Amino acid sequence: MTESLLFREDVDAIATLTLNDPGKLNALSDAMIAALSAEFDRLAEDRSIKVIILKGAGRAFCAGHDLKEMQAKRQAADGGAAGFKDLFDRCATMMQKIPTLPQPVIASAHGIATAAGCQLLASCDLAVAAEGTRFGVNGVNIGLFCSTPMVALTRKVAPAVAFEMLTTGEFIEATRAREVGLINRIAAPDELDATTRTLAATLAGKLGAAVKIGKRAFYDQMGLPLAAAYDHAGAVMVENMLYRDTNEGISAFIEKRKPDWS
To answer: Are 65 and 114 in contact (CB under 8 A)?
Structure first.
């Protein structure tokens, strides 16, 4: 992990990752993408962590790609084509690691989440935002349609909402973002961390094996036809029912006691 760009703090089975490039509004530079990707790989193997919180230092959550760094790639002989493809491929790979992580990932946003920063938030499983936070996929305002952010956004909000955001380049604020399903909860700015952590603690208190298998099934079934989705979900339910701790959880509920989970 590049400590200057990404901090990790583990408390009570919750890992908090803080994007730490406030001078650039936590832009997704080449180094930031690499740091996030490497840390996601580590977390995927860390059985001590049940929930991940992703937040930004300074005035914003994340302002998207580092435009100055992107422009520098144009100096290559091919005008930047190979460099741009490499950037977007690496960024897409990093984003796709989030839904495959065994732990739920909660974005904790403030200030702005724009372009690839909005993509990062939309790639997370859940999101909490401070009042006044603004969200946008506003690349169109500088002549660059937010095509890769569009992928995550259209899987989180209704197509018409996403298309309006993508083509107008206009921001939406937290209240609207919650209405359209981009975020789950809103907090007063000075309560953002506490609100996010309360949600994380709730998730961390569940049977980790059940949340893990459930998260995987959630994303797997979304791309399936209805009948196939039920077949897949049914098989997952059977697998989950056979867990020792699931048997204990059901028995404890029936017997009106706390479960003794291993």
So the answer is: no
Listed by start position, the domains of the chain span: 6-204, 208-254
Two tokens at 103? Answer: 């732990």
12-51, pLDDT tens digit by residue?
999 999 999 999 999 999 999 999 999 999 999 999 999 9
* CB burial readout 210-224, b (16+ within 10 A) else e: ebbbbbebeeebeee
pTM, entire model: 0.96
> Which residue from 94, 95, 98, 182 is spatially nearest to 133, judged by alpha carbons?
182
Measure Cα distances from 112 to 88, 115, 166, 171, 200 in Å: 21, 10, 16, 9, 22
Q: Where are the beta strands (DSSP E) in the chain?
A: 6-11, 14-19, 51-56, 105-109, 112-114, 126-130, 134-136, 172-173, 185-187
- Please report, for residues 46, 52, 199, the alpha-carbon distance to residue 204 in angstroms, rounded to integers and kept in the order given: 14, 10, 9
Which CATH number is associated with domain 6-204? 3.90.226.10
| Contact residues for 44 (Cβ-Cβ < 8 A; gap 6+) | 97, 100, 101, 102
Per CATH, domain 208-254 is 1.10.12.10: yes
* Beta-carbon count within 10 A of 14 CB: 20
